[in-house]
Amino acid sequence: MGPKKGILERLAEGVVIGDGGFVFELEKRGYVMAGPWTPEVTLEHPDAVRELHREYLRAGSDVMQALTFYASDDKLINRGNVAGKKFTGAAVNAAACKIAKEVAAEGDALVLGGISETPTYLSGGGKAAVQAEFRKQIQVFVDHGMDFLLCEYFEYVEEVEWAIEVCKETGKPVASTMCIGPKGDMHGVPAGECAVRMAKAGADIVGVNCHFDPFVSLETIKLMKAGLEKAGLKPFLMCQPLGYHTPDAGPQGFIDLLEFPFALEPRLCTRWDFHKFARQAYDLGVRYIGGCCGTQHHHLRAVAEELAKERGKTPLSSEKHAPWGEGLALHTKPWVRARANREFWENLKPATGRPFSASMSEPENWGVTAGSKLMMQHAGVTTEAEQEEVRRFKKGGGKH
């Protein structure tokens, strides 16, 4: 066998399926702390990370994304996070790269290292300070032979431009996604302009990840695609949305929802939602399709099964999953056997089973962005005085 095809070659030939959510899934399993969401689990419980990678590989993922989300040194010590006292960012990132490469070798998967927004930027740190944080992570990715790099989960286009610049210094292909919706970044830069600026900064692949559900995310992709076409730019498009429904979310997506982060399960997408998403994304021209928080094995398998004809293969885990519930024809109960068909599952309107549950939430859109006093970050534990200031702000309606 010859060398593996690179990410850009694969995208030029067809669809690449990304992986699913890590920090949310590992938080539920007791390995990640909600709040800081940092990935020291790569050192503390590497087997948990390894098994999740393996699940996604079986589901059809073509890329093993090293669990390096929020693994910058400034994030590991932010607001009293003890992870930075136990481990360095370099150690966390190195462990993540080794695990991803190990599992990728079990299939034909590529590996990538990713960087995300930093507390340094939110606190008003300048370009040099922010890029210094990025360079520390990226050097680890280069040392461990990651196939390409990803700038993901950025709320501000300025910061992601700085991130792309540093990634381009390596000569590796660069993907870039922002966690924004159709209204654009947190300072009001339109989604189409964000895409153009990412592409002009040097990103080979641009799009969105996290914060919004598959269908809201595709609305953002439409705006990005229009902006890129108007500018005469042709990067590949990428979409890795939440596994939760967020039609009622505010500018910051599911973070604005009252259910974030511990009561989102009633919003979970079905596998059939992801069949629909995969088809719509493909028809829109998106060629890198994956998932973020809340996206699980069965969601990715749905993407792989929906696009099996285009990809010329089905995922390994489809061995135990007949298309469109056809395996239910083996069920003992006749009324369950009657559900063994595509028409039933495509037209189902799932119930929540919660008699007094509202269909929509009331998002807490405080309008607090980088530059606000409330967004200033620091290494010390959040003080009671700071918490009281937050409570006063909320009591006042969450407005400046």
TrEMBL record:
One of its GO terms (molecular function) is zinc ion binding. It comes from the Eukaryota. Residues 4-307 form the Hcy-binding domain. Keywords: Metal-binding, Methyltransferase, Transferase, Zinc. Its cofactor is Zn(2+). Pathway: Amino-acid biosynthesis; L-methionine biosynthesis via de novo pathway; L-methionine from L-homocysteine (BhmT route): step 1/1. SUPFAM superfamilies: Homocysteine S-methyltransferase (SSF82282). Zn(2+) binds at residues 210, 292-293. InterPro entries: BHMT, BHMT-like, HCY_dom, HCY_dom_sf. Binds 1 zinc ion per subunit. GO terms for biological process: methionine biosynthetic process; methylation. PROSITE patterns: HCY (PS50970). This is Hcy-binding domain-containing protein.
